[in-house]
Structure formats: structure tokens, C-alpha cells
Specification:
It is a single chain. 52% of the residues lie in helices and 2% in strands. It has a two-stranded antiparallel sheet. α2 runs parallel beside α4, α3 packs antiparallel against α4 and α3 packs across α7. The N terminus is likely disordered.
Length: 269
Amino acid sequence: PPTNAKPAKAKRISKLRVVTLVLALAGLVAGVMMVTVSLTSASSSAMAIVTASQHTTDEFTKTGIPLDTEWKKQVWAFAVQHVTHPAWGLAHSERDYQNAVHNAKANGLQVDLDVLFAAAFLHDLGALAGWAIPGVSHGKRSAHLVGPWLEQWGFPKEKILQAQSVMINHVEDILPPAVMPVEDTVFRDVDLLDFIGDIGVARLLSTTEEENGVKGTIGEITKQLEEWAQLFPPQLRTESAKQEAPKRCAEQKDFLGRLDKYTYGGKAL
């Protein structure tokens, strides 16, 4: 503290002890947890990766993602309640986060895990019934909705625009590769991959009867899958995603080929 503040030090300590004692008697003080946060500068994009954060709980998501800050618990609780859809709901969000982390590691990219977490669990909110607006990109709608909430939940203010950028660019792809943030690139690639292969088939078939899904018969869904298998791979930017795409396309083609065989050339599908 400044030297001219030393005379008030004793009073501050005394007040602190009184407050601490009252809280302890009420059973509200369990201890003090130290926080260590280290930032590593990214080599090409001036991005950074948070390598440690404040641990407040031992809770985890279904796939083992640690809910180690209060704001993560808030995001998770909201997603559990509101991000509900068989194809682009909570399970899709979990896969996107886990796959984005793996994708970044596989390509030697440094990413902000806080940004990826917030974006993963909230990026498709704007596509869901009750939140979607006709004619508005669901990425932009999601970003618009969650900005104030993230701040309210305690998400780092300086990262809100980054998280919103990931949500927007997972749909829009409005930035050229040279200037697109690394989190946006990594996340968009894995989100596209989740529409291809066995997982893509499972996701799309689950929407045939959904009010906010891809309506139609199974035959119409298979045509959509075939179109996406042609459309999405050329859009991928990370090397690991480019290598993964042919494998997924092959397994999808194999499945749809057998399906065609069992349904008399798709006529009984």
C-alpha cells in the first residue's frame, strides 16, 4: 500500500478480523483458496491460453469438463435447462468443446479455454425454439443474447467479445483465414465435422419429428447429409480437421449405401 496509508492499516485489519469472525460463526467461511492464472502468448495471433483458474468445486460435466469457476457453473446450469435439442443441444455442445480442445492440441494451437467453454455451450441457443428469430443468423442471435448474461454470471469481461465472435463465425465465416481468431477457426472446424459421419447421421435422423429440426422423411434427411458431406470438408482450415473429414465421409457413405440397399434404392425409406 502507499506509505501515506499505513496509519489506517491497523483499523483495516481490525475490521477484517471482525467481519471474518462473524462470517465464520455463521458457517459461511470455509477457507481461502489461492488462484493462480498464467497467460501464454500465442505466437501468431496474439491470443493467450489460460492454464490455471480458480477452483471452487469438484463438479464436472457429463464428459468430465471441470466446472471449476462460478461462471462455468452458471453457464452449465443454463445450458442444461435451455440448450435442449437432440441434434444441437447439450450433448452437441459437450462434443464441440472437447473436440475443439483436442483439435487445438493436435495442431499446436494456443487457445483460450474460457472462450471455448462459453461459446460451446451457448453457440446454438439462437437456433432453438423460443430463442430463434426468423431471418436472423442463429450465431448472431446467440451472441446477442448471451453477452449481458455472461457479464452477469461473472465471465471475464475482457473475453466476452471473443466468445461472441466464436458464436458468430461458427455460422457466418465472415473473416478470412489470416485474421480469423484461432478460437473461431478451431471451433468452427469441429462444429462442421459434427455434421459428418456416423455422428452426423445420428444427429440428423433425430430431427425428423422435431418442431425446430430438419423436418421431413428419413429419405430427405439422407439427401441433406450427402450434400453436407460435399459442402463442409472444403471449408475446414485446421490440418487435423482436414485429415478427419475423409474418414467421416467414408463411414457415412458406407452407412447410407447399406441403407439404400435395405430400402430398395431408397424407395422404401
